Amino acid sequence: MSDTASIPRPEYPRPDRVRPDYPHKVLNGTWAFAFDEEDRGIDERWNRGGAQGAVHPALDKQIIVPFAHQTPASGLNDERACGVVWYARQFSMLQLLVQEAIRDEERVLLHFGAVDYETKVWVEGELVVEHRGGHVPFHADITDVLQAARDANKTHASVTVRARDAPHDLTQPRGKQYWRAQPESIFYHPTTGIWQSVWVERVPRARIEHFTLVPDIDTGTLSVRAETLGLHKGLEGQLEVEVSLLGTTISASTVTVGSSTSEALAVISVRIPASSPPEKARTNLSGPLTFPPEVHRLAWTNGLALWSPETPTLYDVTLRLRTKTDSVVLDTVRTYAGMRKGYWPDSGLTPPTAEALKVDIEKMKSIGMNGARKHQKVEDPYYHYWADQLGYLVWGEAANAYDYSSTYSLRFIEEFTASIRRDINHPSVVVWTPINESWGVPELQTSETHRSHIAALYHHIKSIDPSRLISDNDGWEHVTTDLFTFHDYAEYAALKKTCASLDTVLGPKAGRPGFVGSENKYSGQPLILSEFGGVAINLSKSNENAWGYNEATSEEDLLARLEGLVSAVVDSPLHIDGYVYTQTADIETEVNGLLTPRREWKVDAAKLKAIFSRRPDPAKVAC
């Protein structure tokens, strides 16, 4: 497929880390595909392909990547839970292979955004990478394989993927993917295999491999820690960090890359010595629209343009890796930073377009919402990109398992760590939520092992990212947490009674105590009602499997119920610090969304805004 207009999700998949000087090629589109229900593909060497580099004849179906075969967007819409599936295609090596004279200075990487769950990848029949984890990215260096293909006078290379998913393994992190034959209530069809973008790109051999941005509004600085790859004793490097706002450079700093660690740390001031924007921006604040609309909503505090849902101001950051001796640029990466403290109907887990993610956020902001829990899912990178750009608070969550074992523990820690590493630089991510409602750890009240797992997750996350809050086990049975979150799907009168006192908020929910372990008690954490509502409308007129936590009989009844539920929270004499309504849109059998699966409002958006824009009256909140 050479026409990019016909390629699904054609945009560069990582908008927060762009190399402007190097080409890439998105491999989404039509691939050969096969179900391998008898798991015979390895023995029959499906990875080796057929004659003249063609894919193996066993891969006799076609699928549209990056959509799972269970979805209409894949072109298959086959809902079976097959344990092993295969993909294959060829791609042109033109513009990706390096020139002979600089062969040793550049590499070609093959990237996968996410493949559920265990993956093997072959290029030209050679195994290039194995990966476990269904929700995080991975890549392989395929330079040598492509070079050998070019030396054999080939212009195209083959890539073959085997994905193994155990649909009935309850220790495998799966989120809301159901292990039974048909979805019901809050559980959905499984997602098997490739479900995020696939792409190849050329990169420098000596490069910036990973970086972490940590804003500090108290000191007015941005800390940049970069990990490099490819430097050696004869090639020492320096990291240059340049920060700009509205096209004006604010500051720059150059530090030496450690010879033993291959890491560099730069702490750079981004404070402008004034209480207002720089002259270039200030001139245009009330004049003609010379700059994008963001210029007109800058929030300035003590020389800093702060990021918030109301003012999502982003600083542009350019990282350059240079040689230490003669300052030659080896690699350039463009990203951004924010100074702050603190399912789709036709395509399943995969958003149909990057724009669709933006629409979800814009619609929720338009009715007064300022954030979302991405429940039981590691979200597409473009969701976080749009949340950064538009000003939307996101809780970074995970797909949980359902049963505990030591194998599960190792799997989960590995994958959630990788998701944090992927998303740590997004200012919109404000909370990490590893576990929801004791999924995977059902014996917290009686098992020290299960409690130790929760505590270990908390401290492990803090050791990686001390700047964010953690909800350790959202909604139920807390062990070690920065937030006291609780879930309550009661209707108005019962919810009002619960929110009336601290004792009832902290009391058991769904028969489970607020804290478990004799040493774990409430110590003043912010109170968040992080799941409530879930009101469906006219269930009796929906399909027979439609489900919601509660039911409204009409649009007027739905609005009245929503108004009552929100009032129970915002009029509480306690200081309830926030709430999360269930949910944005209908998904499969769960039809308690504010939007239909096609993202159409069920009721008047202006009336929803009047309800969800309400905030507590400070004068009525108990101290």
Question: Would you mind describing this structure in some detail?
Answer:
With 623 residues, the chain is α+β, with helices and mostly antiparallel strands. The protein has 3 domains: 4-203, Galactose-binding domain-like (Jelly Rolls, Sandwich); 218-337, Immunoglobulins (Immunoglobulin-like, Sandwich); 354-616, Glycosidases (TIM Barrel). It is built from 10 helices and 32 strands. Strands 3-2-4-10-7-8 form a 6-stranded antiparallel beta sheet. Strands 1-12-5-9 form a 4-stranded antiparallel beta sheet, covered by helices on one side. Strands 16-15-20-21 form a 4-stranded antiparallel beta sheet, with no helix packed on it. It starts with 23 loop residues before the first strand and ends in an 11-residue tail after the last helix.
**Biggest pleated-sheet summary:** 6 strands, antiparallel
Query: What is the percentage of strand-forming residues?
Result: 25-35%
Strand order of the largest sheet: 3-2-4-10-7-8
Radius of gyration: 25 Å
Instruction: Provide the CATH topology of the largest domain.
Output: TIM Barrel
Helices, by number, come to 10
Helix content: 10-25%
Task: Give the distance, in angstroms, between the N- and C-terminal Cα atoms.
Answer: 63 Å
> Which descriptor suits the 3D outline?
globular
